[in-house]
Each structure stands twice: as structure tokens, then as C-alpha cells.
Design brief:
TPR-like_helical_dom_sf, DNA-binding, about 0% strand, 38 helices, about 700 residues, two-stranded antiparallel sheet
DNA sequence: GAACATTCTC
């Protein structure tokens, strides 16, 4: 009897029941298999339970059925209670552990352990009364799969030699399994050797495995050579492999051309195809292509797949179009952790931290990517207190995880913004204790932190220990010297950068150099740098460079040069640049030019309170109260709030902020009386000093 | 005549 379709099975079964069906083990096993295969696991299990007698096939079939249904626990229970076990039973259970069939990544480690134990047990136990072999080709391929996952090369090599020695465990799968195992364990040459040995009897799976191996190794030319050789072997997976290989190696346009080629060749597209090509659209930030692929996906009915729907959301996030991203999320990807992660990253990048945090809290499990995104988002948006709170949260929640270098960099950035030396030092020592490989970026962040916290000598000490210096490292140190009024050191370091290390300065280097000149009032040198950056290094000055020069001229009482340079700015001046110019006008008491700048500035930054205050101060410094009144009037209509000047100090329990006139602190009375004592003390000391000087 | 293994995705 051959049973093929479900219809036949049901028909046969109902007839059997009607005619007073006497259970034959063989037939019932078949029924169990076909019920399970068609998704009727409960019916299959009922049949199994009702069997008066079972053989090893019955047990194997029901175990396989549960494994197919991703129920490892149930399979394990049946495995342990089965009175008949043969090699197939062991192989099935082994595969269940290796493939982590119930998809619980957190248990992967434990499962691998169980698989290894079972493998050892198989070799020692007398399966089926010792009448059959302990290991066959199924065992070997499953174990090679495990070896690939664990990067357990020594076991992989042992299996390989066992295969060669015993000769009877080779199968059609052995070649592809070996290639895959060696490649995933990082032994590319071994993978190639196996491939060359089985060239005569190459099947498409082995070919796909070696193409994937080449892509992993970034050997794309070789991958293409093999791909275009024996084209008749190429199937959908082959095309998917080569396309994803190009995407993963950053050749997105080439991947796209291959995708077009695949369609033109009439190859069937599947989930993997769309997932890879969506990845390419994301990396290219190509909204138009992304929308086209999205349309394809909807038409082909792949949007249900979680890889695909999150891929679509990711494309829109990477393109910065959050309206589309939200739409794609709510229509087809709700609850998908990858989609949520993409949106958290995107919102963090654009500084929308409320939305980023809201989504972050919806995740059941937070991964490194979203933690990192949130940290860097907070610091980029200058929300340092939130970043510190997040760090406490991270340490509490992920007690066993060492914060990733990117998180530590963000935290150093937060310390730098707040000028919080003490936490900065703590993070520094934490890095020394726990980070095994401290890279240039982390060192640059540490130098920047120490410099911005006022400890230029610490910064310098770290800088001098670094052997391999890059432009970022130099820029950070030059900027540090500039802010600490060490213009000679800054200038010398720039020379060292160009001459000793032969590193090309970039736009940021010149911001550092120009701000050195600005702080030191070095007009001529500043002009030299400003011209050199374009003529010698081909770097177009940006808003920051112009702002430095305007400020430099303003402080040196050379308003004519400042306004002449303002005229030559080749783009629409931004608020920073106009602010610098306004400041120059204030220093040089030119109300006429100030007023012109004022008009432009208010057009750009109409809502910002601090700008109005800056304007009012320009006129107040001249005693021009009519103008001050005019600005104040403008402020009133627009709900402009003046940003109060404030100081802050980082104590054990966090940051305490002091705003002028603030009495909200619980101990504000005590604070103010202590302050009064300090002021009295200072005044007293001043009087003593003065009388000493007079004496 | 029934049961177990390989290649490509965020």
C-alpha cells in the first residue's frame, strides 16, 4: 500500500475504521507519519497512544513528528521512555539537539552539550543489542553541523579522518557538510581542498557551500568563477548565496545587478532572495529601490515572513523615512524585534529619544545593538543624565555582560560633556580592567574626556603612550591643547602629525587648529591655516571653519575682515556662524551690522530663546535700552524661554544642577548660607591681600 | 513498502 496525499490517508483510515480495522503496526506507523506530516500531530499522537503494540519504527516516527513540530521537550521525553532504540532514534535526537529545533537561542549552549554527551554515549552503548553500527553517515553529517556551530575544529578533523578511514560513512551529503564545517571554522584552505577532491561528483549543495565559503572569506572573484562554472547546477539557493555574498561584502550595486540577472533568467525567487536584496537597499539608503522591492514583496506574498517584513521596515528606517517605517511596521511587522531595533536605531540617530526609549521599553529582550543605539542617542542629544541612568539600568539588567566598547565610548562622551572627571576616571579604570583590546577610538574618547574635564596632563599622558596614531587621535589632542590655551603644543603636534606620522589632516583638524588661533588671538597664523586647508589639502571650509575665522577677527577687533569674510561664505550661513558674527559686532560695537545679522538669525532660529537673549545683550552692552525693549517685545509673542545659566557638579548620586536664584533644592537654605560664608571669606581674603599690597 | 543528515536571511 502506498499512501501519498492526505486525502488518500483520510479515505483509507475511515474505511479501515468502518470495516472493523485490526491494527497492523506497519500500517499504523504509516498513518502516524502521514498525519504528522500534514500537521495533524494530535491525531498522530492519538493513534500512537492507542497502539496495542509498537515497534522501533513507531517510536522513531512519533519522535520525528514532535521534532518537526519544534517540540524538543516532548521528543526528549519519548526518547527517554522508548523501549526500542536504534541508530535512527539516536540520530533523530542528536539532530534535535544540534538544530535547536524549538528555536530557543538561550538554550543553544546547553543543547550543544547534550548533543556532545549523546554522541559519546552512542559510541559506547550497545545500540540495538550491538547488532548495528554505532555511527553512520547521518550521525557524521549531523555532528559536522554541530562542529561548524561550535567552531570545534579538532572534532571536525577527527570526524573527517574517521570518514576517510571507515569509508562507509560517506554519503551524498558528506562533501557539502565537510566544506561547510571547515569554512565556518575558519579553515578556508581545508574547505577548498575538500571541494577540489570532490570535483568529479559535484552536486549543487556542495557547490553552494563552497561559494558561500568564498563569500565568507571575501574571495568574491573565486566565488563568481565557481558560480558561473557548471551553471546547470545553479538553483535558487546558488543565486541567493552569491547575491548575499556581494551584499555582505559591501558591493550592493553588484548584488543588485545579479538580482536583476536572476529575475531575467527566470529563477524562482524566495524569502532569502528578498531578504538579501532588501539588505542591499538599506545599505544603499535607496528609498526608491526599497519601495520597488517592497511592492514586489507584497505582490509575491512574502510580507508574512519576519525576515522580509523587518527588512522592509529597516529600509525605510535607514532612509530616514519614519512615516513609511511606521506604516510598514503597523501593517505587517508588529512585535518583530528586528523591526523595533531598526526603529530604535533610526530614532536615536535623529535624536528623537522619547520615541527611541518608548520602543526600547516594548522589547522583551534588549540586545547590544539597541543598548548601544540608546546610549549614543542620549549622548548625541546631550542628555547625559539619561545616559548615566541607562548605564545603571544596563549594569543591573545585564549583570554578566561587559558593556561593549561603543557603550563605553558613549559614556566617556557623556563625562566629557558634563566635565565629570570622577565618573570618567571610573570608566577609564573599568576599561583597563575589562576591555581586552583597547582600540584607537576608545583611546581617543578617553583623551577627549580627560581634556574636556580639565585634565590635559592625563590626556597627554595617554596620548603619548599610543604607538599607532590616526587622524582622530591627533585631532582630539590638538583640540585639547587649543581649549587649554596651549597653542604652541597644538601647533607642534600638527607638525608632528604631518611630518612624523605622515597623516593627512582633515576638516576636523583645521577646526582644531583655527580654534587654537582663535583662543590665542593668532590672526596671521589662522589666516595661513584657513588658506592652506583649501589650497594645500583640498578641503573646502565648512560653517565651523568660517565661524572660527569670524570669531578670530572679531576678538582681534578686525570687524572689516570679519564682515568681508561673511560676504564670501559660499552657502547660506547657519545659526552658529551668524551667532559668531553677531558676537563680533558686539565686541566691535557695530550696531548697524548687528541688526542685519539679527534679522537673518531670527529667520533661522525664531524659536530659540538663547538667541534673543544674545541679541538683547548686544544692545544692553551699548546701553541702548530702546533696542533692548524692542527685542524683549519680540520675545513675548513667541513663548521664548530664556535658558538660564547654570553650573553643575557630579556627586555620588548623580548630577546636581545650580541655576541662579533657584530655591527648589530641599537644602537650599543651607546651600545659600554656606555660599554667603564663602563669599564673605573671599571678600575678607581680598581685603587682606589688598592691604598687604599697599603696605 | 514506514523513521534520522547538507547549502542561502534581519
Amino acid at each position: 500500500m502506498h499512501l501519498k496525499s492526505l486525502k488518500e490517508v483520510l479515505l483509507f483510515h475511515s474505511q479501515a475504521i468502518k470495516s472493523g480495522f485490526q491494527s497492523i503496526i506497519f500500517t499504523t506507523n504509516q498513518l502516524i507519519h502521514y498525519y504528522a506530516k500534514n500537521g495533524f500531530l494530535r491525531h498522530a499522537h492519538k493513534l500512537f497512544d492507542e497502539m496495542p503494540e509498537r515497534n522501533v519504527y513507531s517510536w522513531n516516527t512519533i519522535i520525528a513528528a514532535h521534532l518537526k513540530n519544534h517540540d524538543l521537550k516532548k521528543a526528549e521525553f519519548l526518547f527517554n521512555s522508548s523501549p526500542h532504540k536504534d541508530l535512527v532514534t539516536y540520530n533523530s535526537m542528536l539532530a534535535g539537539y544540534v538544530n535547536n529545533v524549538d528555536d530557543k537561542p538561550e538554550l543553544e549552549h546547553e543543547r550543544s552539550d547534550l548533543a556532545l554527551r549523546l554522541f559519546v554515549e552512542m559510541q559506547s552503548s550497545q545500540i540495538h543489542g550491538g547488532s548495528c553500527s554505532r555511527i553512520d553517515e547521518f550521525t557524521v553529517t549531523t555532528m559536522l553541523n554541530l562542529v561548524a556551530k561550535l567552531c570545534f575544529v579538532s572534532l571536525g578533523t577527527q570526524l573527517h579522518s574517521y570518514m576517510v578511514k571507515s569509508g562507509n560513512v560517506f554519503s551524498g551529503f558528506s562533501c557539502s557538510s565537510l566544506i561547510d564545517m571547515y569554512s565556518k571554522c575558519g579553515c578556508f584552505r581545508e574547505a577548498i581542498r575538500v571541494f577540489n577532491e570532490c570535483r568529479g561528483c559535484l552536486d549543487s549543495v556542495s557547490k553552494n557551500a563552497i561559494v558561500a565559503a568564498c563569500c565568507r572569506e571575501s574571495e568574491l572573484d573565486l566565488a563568481l568563477d565557481i558560480f558561473w562554472h557548471e551553471v546547470e547546477l545553479n538553483d535558487t539557493i546558488s543565486w541567493n548565496t552569491i547575491i548575499s555574498g556581494f551584499v555582505q561584502n559591501g558591493f550592493h550595486e553588484k548584488a543588485f545587478r545579479l538580482f536583476i540577472c536572476m529575475m531575467e533568467n527566470g529563477i524562482r525567487l524566495n524569502n532569502h532572495t528578498f531578504a538579501s536584496i532588501l539588505g542591499a537597499c538599506s545599505s544603499m539608503r535607496n528609498l526608491k529601490l526599497g519601495k520597488e522591492i517592497h511592492a514586489h514583496v507584497l505582490k509575491a506574498g512574502f510580507i508574512e515572513n519576519s525576515f522580509i517584513s523587518s527588512g522592509v521596515v529597516d529600509v525605510y528606517c535607514k532612509c530616514g523615512n519614519m512615516d513609511y517605517a511606521k506604516f510598514a511596521y503597523t501593517t505587517s511587522s508588529i512585535g518583530n524585534a528586528f523591526s523595533i531595533s531598526s526603529m530604535i536605531v533610526a530614532y536615536s540617530l535623529m535624536g528623537n529619544m522619547e520615541e527611541a526609549r518608548r520602543l526600547f521599553d516594548t522589547l522583551i529582550e534588549q540586545n547590544t545593538v539597541v543598548w548601544t543605539a540608546l546610549f549614543s542617542g542620549y549622548v548625541k542629544s546631550q542628555c547625559c543624565e539619561e545616559a548615566f541612568n541607562l548605564l545603571s539600568e544596563f549594569l543591573a539588567k545585564e549583570a554578566n555582560v561587559i558593556p561593549d566598547a561603543l557603550i563605553l565610548m558613549s559614556m566617556l562622551g557623556a563625562c566629557a560633556i558634563q566635565a565629570s572627571l570622577h565618573p570618567g576616571k571610573q570608566i577609564h579604570s573599568y576599561i583597563l580592567k575589562s576591555v581586552t583590546k583597547i582600540d584607537g577610538k576608545l583611546l581617543s574618547s578617553m583623551i577627549d574626556m580627560y581634556s574636556k574635564c580639565g585634565h590635559i596632563t592625563y590626556a597627554e599622558r595617554i596620548f603619548l603612550q599610543v604607538k599607532e596614531r590616526d587622524s582622530v587621535l591627533y585631532n582630539v589632542m590638538i583640540t585639547g591643547y587649543a581649549h587649554h590655551g596651549k597653542e604652541n603644543e597644538a601647533i607642534m603636534l600638527f607638525k608632528e602629525m604631518c611630518e612624523r606620522d605622515n597623516i593627512r589632516p582633515n576638516a576636523a583638524t583645521f577646526v582644531a587648529l583655527l580654534s587654537t588661533c582663535r583662543h590665542a588671538g593668532l590672526v596671521e597664523l589662522g589666516e595661513n591655516y584657513f588658506h592652506a586647508m583649501e589650497s594645500d589639502y583640498g578641503i573646502q571650509p565648512e560653517a565651523d571653519h568660517y565661524a572660527c575665522m569670524i570669531d578670530l577677527y572679531g576678538r582681534a577687533n578686525q570687524l572689516e575682515k570679519a564682515s568681508a569674510l561673511m560676504e564670501r561664505v559660499p552657502f547660506e550661513p547657519d545659526a552658529v556662524l551668524l551667532g559668531a558674527f553677531l558676537n563680533a559686532c558686539r565686541i566691535n560695537r557695530n550696531l548697524e551690522l548687528a541688526r542685519e545679522a539679527e534679522e537673518k538669525l531670527l529667520r533661522i532660529e525664531g524659536e530659540s530663546g538663547s538667541r534673543y537673549v544674545q541679541l538683547a545683550n548686544v544692545y544692553a552692552s551699548e546701553g541702548n535700552w530702546v533696542e533692548v525693549g524692542r527685542i524683549r517685545k519680540k520675545m513675548k509673542g513667541k513663548e521664548v524661554k530664556k535658558l538660564a545659566g547654570c553650573s553643575w557638579i557630579h556627586l555620588e548620586n548623580g548630577v546636581t544642577i545650580f541655576t541662579s536664584g533657584d530655591t527648589s533644592h530641599l537644602k537650599s537654605d543651607a546651600i545659600y548660607s554656606l555660599l554667603a560664608c564663602l563669599v564673605a571669606e573671599i571678600n575678607h581674603l581680598a581685603v587682606v591681600e589688598r592691604s598687604k599690597a599697599l603696605a
